[in-house]
Amino acid sequence: MTTKGVEAIFLTTHNWGKAAKFFQSLGYALEFETDHNSGQLRNGAGPYLFIAEIPESETPQTRLVLNVADEEAFRLDPSIDIVSPFADTHWGTREMTIRDPDGRIWSLQAPARR
Fold this sequence. Notes:
Radius of gyration: 15 Å
Number of strands: 8
Number of helices: 2
CATH architecture: Roll
CATH topology: 2,3-Dihydroxybiphenyl 1,2-Dioxygenase, domain 1
Oligomer: single chain
Distance between the termini: 21 Å
Strand order of the largest sheet: 2-3-4-1-5-8-7-6
Order of helices and strands: EHEEEEHEEE
Shape: globular
CATH superfamily: 2,3-Dihydroxybiphenyl 1,2-Dioxygenase, domain 1
Low-confidence stretches: none
Largest sheet: 8 strands, mixed
Strand content: over 45%
Helix content: 10-25%
Structural class: mainly beta
């Protein structure tokens, strides 16, 4: 059971436009923007940033998304604290949420099933 490194950094924000401009000033290029105040930015070959706007009543958060090639290896490991099992996403991958020993939440992203 291994990961293939950090796939993405998922950020929530109260202002999509300001957040996108901030990261663009740091050298990130906008790859796409959605019609619901979110989008993806990238700087070189590293992990992409996906930023989504949330209501003022919610606290902005950061979540790392680790890439995995084989979701079955994680599903069967009893040492993994699974918060939510692998499920299809609306953006064409499969995602699982796990908790580390200190209580932090991590996302694992696998390719869509064929």
